[in-house]
Amino acid sequence: MKRPSGFDGRPERPEPQRPEPARAAQSGRSASETPDAPGARAAEGSGARDEGSGAEVSSPLAPTVDLSEVRERRAGLLAVSRAVDPVRAAEKRVREAEKRLRQRERRESRRFSFAGRRRRRIWIVAGSAVLALALFVVVGVFTPVMAVRKIEISGATTVATADVERALARFEGTPLALVDEGQVRAALEPFPLIQRYGVERIPPDTLLVRIVERVPVLSIESGGAFKQYDAAGVLVGSAAEPPAGAPLASGRITDLDSEAFHSAALALRDMPAELRAQVVSVTANGGEDVTLTLANGVEVMWGGSENTARKALVLNSMSASLAAIGTPVSYIDVSSTEAPVFR
Fold it and tell me: What is the protein's major site of localization (predicted)?
């Protein structure tokens, strides 16, 4: 019986494939170097058989592919695709922005809370100060807690202190803040020796009045008495004899409205008290020829009322120098302090 497909004949040889030169050379080297490898003898036999036919046959082993490398490449591509996923990146940026926003809100909240507490403290302190001041004013003005209970007089020498205290007794019981300056002036007007005054309120209950008395600088004889006047022409007192420090005036000085009186009065007021006490009389016909007579009989041409302190210094120096050398002198001119004259 004949077999199908021609089994009774010689089987058909498959058409040989031409291998690449490098792979063919490698296959040849492998076959020659490893003769004991599986299929080596078969390859040799086949080659022997093919030599007679003159055909070239390649190695029956098919090329292999490393799947691990494929998996690694695929995993790398997946990681890259996931890493640059725009949706996930955007979501991450949104979460980070929200986190930063919450942190900034917390910082701002803490900052404004601190500033608010500081403002409240400032307002509380300011309000407390205003309230305390208002309370102090109310207590001092509308209650007898800070009313006048003691009246003190300072600077009185000629004026009787008891008389001034009696004149100011009307203010006892009045709150210190309500003591009126005009009423104090009205109470002190009857005292001509008081030139000026000042009022101090000393809590809780003391009213202090500082007075400056008028100083008589010259005397004018009138009706058998010697009336004493200060530099402003105010009558200070009257006596039977001119007191020390208030020399007897003559000439145009007796006219209280004249220039001679004002010049002589200012010169006597501004000179040292020790020198004024040595002057026994003063005369002048105008404002620039004031002449003094000292207790030792020396006549002094004073001149005008300017440079009084320097004129007094020059007069004292000249008097001391002349007395030291024993030179008698009856007249000294200090009207010009740069060139004083004596004789």
Answer: membrane
Report the number of distinct structural domains present in the chain: 3
Shared domain check, 152 and 132: no
Looking at residue 145, the DSSP 8-state letter turns out to be: G
Would you state the structure tokens that stand for residue 73, as one six-digit string? 């490449």
Residue 184, in any domain of the structure:
yes
Domain of 291?
218-342
Q: What are the structure tokens assigned to 333, written together?
A: 């001119």
The burial of 203, by beta-carbon neighbours within 10 Å (0-12 exposed, 13-18 middle, 19 or more buried), is given as exposed
pLDDT digits (tens, 9 = 90+) for 85-129: 677 778 888 889 999 998 888 887 777 777 777 778 888 889 999
Helix/strand/coil for 239: strand
- Does some domain include residue 291? yes
Q: In what order do the strands lie in the sheet with 279-284?
A: 235-239, 225-229, 218-222, 248-251, 279-284, 290-294, 299-303, 331-333, 341-342
Instruction: For residue 275, give the CATH number of its domain.
Output: 3.40.50.10960
Indicate whether 10 belongs to any domain.
no
Confidence of residue 220 (pLDDT cuts 50, 70, 90): very high
Helix H or strand E encompassing 227: strand 225-229
Beta strand residue intervals within 113-164, DSSP E: 150-154
DSSP 64: -
Percent residues over pLDDT 90 in the chain? 48
| Gyration radius of the chain's alpha carbons | 66
* Tens-place pLDDT, residues 29-54: 444 444 444 444 434 444 444 444 44
Amino acid identity, position 280? V
